[in-house]
Amino acid sequence: MDPETQKSIDQSKHLLKRISEDSSVPRNIRRAANEAIAVLENEVDSPAVRAQNAISILDEPSQDPNCPNHARTKIWHVSSLLEPIRD
Predict the structure, then answer these.
(1) CA distance 54 to 36
(2) What pLDDT sits at residue 50?
(3) Which domain holds residue 43?
(4) What average pLDDT does the segment 73-84 reach?
(5) Predicted pLDDT of residue 51
(6) For the stretch 7-46, what's the b/e string if a residue is b when 16 or more beta carbons lie within 10 angstroms of its beta carbon?
(7) Number of domains in the chain
(8) Angle CA(1)–CA(50)–CA(18) in degrees, nearest 5?
(9) Alpha carbons 47 and 81: distance in angstroms, whole number
(10) Is the confidence at residue 23, as pLDDT, over 90?
(11) Cα separation of 76 and 71, whole Å?
């Protein structure tokens, strides 16, 4: 994996960890953040597959009306970091 891809995945995991540890974020959104972290850490799939799977997991929570604005912004940032990752 090239360093740029690794950097994007590491930044994404850091942001998702912050969401998952934020008690002001609803439980279902924290759970989705944890699921996305697990997908990104899965070494079996290629980086592009992991990135797309994480984006897919985060799609629903980003549209949840109960999602606080600061968490939604972080989710969008994670998606923008992961979108350019290709095989």
Answers:
(1) 5
(2) 95
(3) 3-20+27-82
(4) 96
(5) 96
(6) ebbeebbebbeebbebeebeeebbebbbbbbebbeeeeee
(7) 1
(8) 100
(9) 12
(10) yes
(11) 9
